Amino acid sequence: MVQPLRVPIVDLSLLRQRSDHTNSPIIKDIHEACRNIGFFHVVHHGIPESVIEGALEVNSEFFNLPTAIKEELISDDVLKPVRFGKLVGEDEGNSKFMRDFLKLCAYPFEDFEALWPTSPPNYREKMGMYSSEVRKVSIEIFEVIMESLNLGATYMRENFNQGCHILGINSYPPCSESDIKAGITPHTDYGLITILLQTHPGLEVVDRTDGKWKVVPEVKGSLQVLVGDQLQVMSNGLYRSVVHRAIPSHWKTRMSIASAHSLAMDEVVEPAMKLLDEGHPKAYKESSLREYLKHLSVRQTRTFIETLQI
Ligand SMILES: O=C(O)CCC(=O)C(=O)O
Ligand SMILES: [Fe+2]
């Protein structure tokens, strides 16, 4: 039986009340969470419930469309800014998985909006609103994470603001068959941070203290923040990307929207100079999002982050 994990809950409204975050216990909590688990919840993030409901509603309508319409967006090309896919199969550990997904490049919105689905007709409007709200939250969270690393709130701010924003919408059909073990198989996310919205629980992470899978407990109104590979590299391994998977529900469709924030496609990420010294030599090679996507498109025995370790 998979046990629940104790995950820190960060109240963003408390952070917004103070302009000076020096010695803030919240920054300390974020530091501990990123260091020990690679993961935390945020509450009072400020995204209106109507925006969240609107985004989930149009995606549910999209996934319920006749297959022929969705298949127009099917592609194996990981560089395509908009693509739909159906994944069903078995991983190396013989666990069966099943998931439909839609990937949308989301920033700058004007560059990609015309490629987004037109069905349902209000798809672009509702998802556009969610995308812009979650981006604002990601900018705030990135700043406090930089503070928690002692790099200062403005460290890489412009690079982050001009970076890539990719929305990964997942739909996991209910499965009563006991042999379907996973909706999405174990992985780390590549970017700096991912902000996750789930319709209901199902996310599991590896607890670093005992190496076991733990269920992420439901926290009403929360979003989850996940440390990605780029943040692992930037922090020179002080923070590590969290290994996670998602388990489908037995009785209803589970959906999630993973909002992945990374540096721009060809911008390289490398360990922050300030975190390097004799006792902490550079532990990762530099890399870009494009190199990661190239790695994804060919079958590899090592994860991308493993290939970067010096
Ligand atoms: O569905 C979930 O909760 C997780 C999704 C996820 O990990 C991803 O899209 O990268
Ligand atoms: Fe993920």
In short:
The protein has 310 residues and is α+β, with helices and mostly antiparallel strands. It has helices at residues 12-16, 25-36, 49-63, 67-70, 109-112, 123-148, 157-161, 229-234, 289-297, 304-308; strands at residues 3-4, 9-11, 39-43, 82-90, 96-105, 164-172, 180-182, 184-187, 193-198, 203-206, 213-215, 223-227, 244-246, 254-262.
Question: Which percent band covers the strand fraction?
Answer: 15-25%
Per DSSP E runs of 2 or more residues, the count of β-strands stands at: 14
Q: What percent of the residues sit in helical stretches (DSSP H or I)?
A: 25-40%
What does the overall shape look like? globular
Give the distance, in angstroms, between the N- and C-terminal Cα atoms. Answer: 37 Å
What hetero molecules are in the model?
2-oxoglutaric acid, fe (ii) ion
Extract low-pLDDT stretches.
Answer: none
Mean pLDDT: 92
Class derived from helix and strand content: alpha+beta
The topology string of helices and strands comes to EEHHEHHEEHHHEEEEEEEHEEHH
Radius of gyration: 19 Å
| Count of discrete alpha- or pi-helical segments spanning 4 or more residues | 10
Largest β-sheet summary: 9 strands, mixed
Overview of the molecule:
It is globular and about 55 Å long. Strands 2, 3, 4, 5, 6, 7, 9, 12 and 14 form a nine-stranded mixed β-sheet that branches. Strands 1-11-10-13-8 form a five-stranded mixed β-sheet, with no helix packed on it. The protein is built from ten helices and 14 strands. A hairpin with a 5-residue loop joins strand 4 and strand 5. Helix 2 crosses helix 6 and helix 3 packs across helix 6. With 310 residues, the protein is α+β, with helices and mostly antiparallel strands. It binds 2-oxoglutaric acid and fe (ii) ion.
